[in-house]
Amino acid sequence: MKKTHILFAVLAVATISFSFTTVQDAALKKSMTEGKDVYEGLCMACHMNEGQGIASVFPPLAKSDFLMKDLDRSINVLIKGQQGEITVNGKKYKGAMPATGLDDKDIADVLNYVRNSWGNKGDRVTTEQVAKVRAKK
Fold it and tell me: At 60, which helix (H) or strand (E)?
């Protein structure tokens, strides 16, 4: 009888875990779809259609160590902009990116898109995470 209860508990946990993962994956996919629209309208002109950037001018987002290393920093770049020298994938870039003017949802969506495209793999960014970083101003 105990083995039956243990088996049932294991199956229940596996089912709940699978369901949660499916919901999370669906939420990420939806956010990425909306983020792609934001990217194409605002970011693609500089960072290009495959996130490759423009050598020595605009840093790549594809396989970007800078983008993936620090989520709060990435959120701040979209909120406040970026000025001064940065190093991306071992190459230095010195320029300016203006603040985007995006709301928390659009920032989360575009980050979900770029952090899960072109060789990047990141956790889902939520509007709550963006709001928390924005509140730290």
Answer: none
Whether the predicted pLDDT of 75 surpasses 90? yes
* Rg of the chain in Å (alpha carbons): 19
Tell me the H-state helices in 39-126: 44-47, 65-69, 71-80, 104-114
Whole-model pTM: value is: 0.82
Q: What one-character DSSP code corresponds to residue 1?
A: -
Contacts 24+ apart (CB under 8 A), 46-55: 46/97, 47/114, 50/118, 51/114, 51/117, 51/118, 52/118, 53/88
Chain segment 87-131, per-residue pLDDT in tens: 999 999 998 999 999 999 999 999 999 999 999 999 999 999 999
Asked if 32 and 112 touch (Cβ cutoff 8 Å), the reply is yes
How many other CB atoms sit within 10 Å of the CB of residue 108?
25
- Both tokens assigned to 88: 């991306």
Check whether 42 has a pLDDT greater than 70.
yes
- Indicate the SS3 state at residue 91: strand
